[in-house]
Specification:
Blueprint lengths: L1 H38 L13 E6 L1 E2 L11 E2 L10 H24 L6 E9 L7 H14 L1 E12 L6 H10 L3 E7 L3 H6 L6 H13 L5 E7 L6 H13 L4 E6 L7 H6 L20 H17 L3 E4 L2 E3 L6 H7 L6 E3 L4 E4 L2 E4 L4 H10 L4 H8 L10 H12 L6 E2 H8 L1 H10 L1 H6 L2 E4 L2 E4 L3 H4 L1 H12 L4
Parallel strand pairs: 1-4, 1-11, 2-3, 4-5, 5-6, 6-7, 7-8
Antiparallel strand pairs: 8-10, 9-10, 12-13, 14-16, 15-16
Helix pairs in contact: 1-15, 2-3, 2-11, 3-4, 7-9, 14-15, 15-18
């Protein structure tokens, strides 16, 4: 009888909670509708911000990892001062094209030396590039832009790809933050995913960073690697925290087409399996990878890291400034180099992926400049910005962050009906406790909401009609 009574009390409590949630949602929709009616039926223009960040793609890598589908050019081992002539010629040609584009991009925006709060050299492995190439490109940015006081200047580096001398040169150039591609501290897992470095290289690299004056550094680690067990994952997180980085990026392995891992672990059961890539074991099953994600969130937060984005953890005041600029509503940013994607007033533009195609494209912009700039750079177009494209980007970026999606901002620029659809699309997540509404801000919960973010965002997309 007591068990029967408790069951009914629990059910009644759940019904009350659900009714309160419905009333809350109706009240929110009503207030938004009133606000919309008061402001008139015409939606205001989207308030795009001035670009304050630039991304520079450096495509060189010693080797392509088995999971990598980025735009990279494999150059083998190239020790500083001992690079082969072919690599030097290619690096110099690429650098010249990037420097040329930096000048053209600044000119195309019609701005006088825009101010930058963040510069990010990614790749590829920028630390493989010759020092003078990095210096020349960063110098060109200084010539064409104003670097704000306190700007974050980041370079991606891999363990084993730089010496103390090279690091000193990088610091002298002005780089003040390093993103170190660790991925794992287990040598067998590193070998199994095609990484060249080993765990000892990681420890040496971290010590060099500290000795070289780089106190602001981030570690990249990957869950879901073949052969990774729950025990090994717990050890990975423990070692990462013991090195005291200011920031940790924790990614789940994605199997992309055209990669060696896809040939081994892809969905095509008829595809030939390439056993040479499988040196550590099978992929963890989905239940294990889900547990790895939730365990990482709990463990890293217990160590003082703030889980500010699905894959990003930072100590207070050490969130990635570059990524934060990407995630702002109405954000714009510059980008140069092959495959680099820039954003300006709702237009996204990705450059050619290969070095050869990229260099040809940059050369094509020079004849004549006043014509090529308007035809080759889409942000020069006066065409209509598709609000659905902007809305899609806002939903995808904001719901992946701890700050969440401000529904009042959505109402202002996209209308109250869009807000109602967002609420309908997220209702199941709200009912399950995977999302919550706080002061008209929709947030995914940590870790469950973040873990199912793709499904939640897809449900909202369907409700709004963002899928074709």
């Amino acid at each position: 009888m007591a068990r029967y009574a408790r069951t009914h009390v629990t059910a009644f409590s759940l019904i009350l909670q659900y009714l309160f949630l419905l009333l809350w949602l109706l009240e929110l929709s009503s207030s938004l509708s009133t606000s919309s009616s008061a402001s008139g039926s015409t939606l205001p223009l989207i308030d795009f911000k001035e670009p304050r960040a630039i991304y520079v793609h450096i495509p060189f890598c010693r080797k392509r990892c088995y999971y990598c589908d980025f735009a990279v050019t494999v150059v083998g081992n190239q020790e500083e001062g001992e690079e082969n002539e072919n690599f030097l010629r290619m690096a110099e040609s690429y650098s010249a094209a990037v420097i040329e584009e930096i000048g053209l991009v600044k000119k195309s925006y019609g701005m006088v030396r825009p101010a930058l709060d963040s510069i990010y050299f990614g790749g590829g492995t920028p630390s493989v590039a010759p020092t003078r190439i990095l210096r020349d490109i960063l110098g060109a940015i200084r010539d064409n832009f104003i670097i704000s006081d306190g700007a974050e200047i980041t370079i991606e580096m891999d363990p084993g790809t730089f010496s103390t001398r090279k690091l000193q040169s990088i610091v002298q150039m002005g780089f003040n933050r390093v993103s170190l591609g660790v991925q794992s501290f287990d040598d067998s897992l590193l070998e199994g995913c095609g990484r060249i470095h080993r765990s000892r290289d990681v420890y040496e690299a971290v010590q060099m960073l500290r000795d070289g004056g780089i106190q602001n550094f981030s570690l990249d680690i990957i869950s879901g690697l073949p052969g990774l067990t729950l025990g090994k994952w717990a050890e990975t997180l423990e070692i990462a925290c013991s090195l005291s980085p200011n920031h940790i990026s924790c990614y789940d392995l994605q199997i992309e087409e055209s990669t060696p891992f896809f040939k081994l672990f892809g969905e095509d059961e008829t595809a030939p399996k390439i056993s040479k890539y499988n040196r550590t074991g099978d992929l963890p099953d989905p239940t294990e990878t889900a547990f790895m994600y939730k365990y990482a969130s709990g463990y890293l937060r217990s160590k003082g890291y703030e889980h500010y984005e699905i894959s990003s953890y930072g100590k207070p005041q050490f969130w990635s400034q570059h990524n934060k600029l990407y995630w702002e509503f109405g954000s714009n940013w510059f980008a140069v180099g092959c495959s680099a994607s820039s954003s300006f007033n709702g237009f996204r533009f990705a450059r050619p992926r290969t070095i050869a195609d990229y260099c040809k494209w940059v050369n094509s912009l020079n004849v004549p400049a006043e014509i090529s700039l308007s035809t080759q750079f889409p942000w020069q177009s006066s065409g209509h910005v598709d609000r659905n494209d902007v809305l899609s980007e806002v939903l995808l970026s904001k719901l992946r962050t701890r700050d969440g999606l401000d529904l009042m901002t959505i109402q202002t620029y996209f209308g109250d009906e869009t807000v109602r659809k967002i609420i309908r699309g997220s209702r199941l997540a709200l009912d399950l406790g995977f999302a919550r509404l706080e002061d008209n801000v929709l947030k995914l919960t940590d870790p469950e909401g973040f873990l199912f973010s793709n499904s939640i965002i897809s449900s909202i997309y369907v409700e709004i009609g963002l899928y074709d």
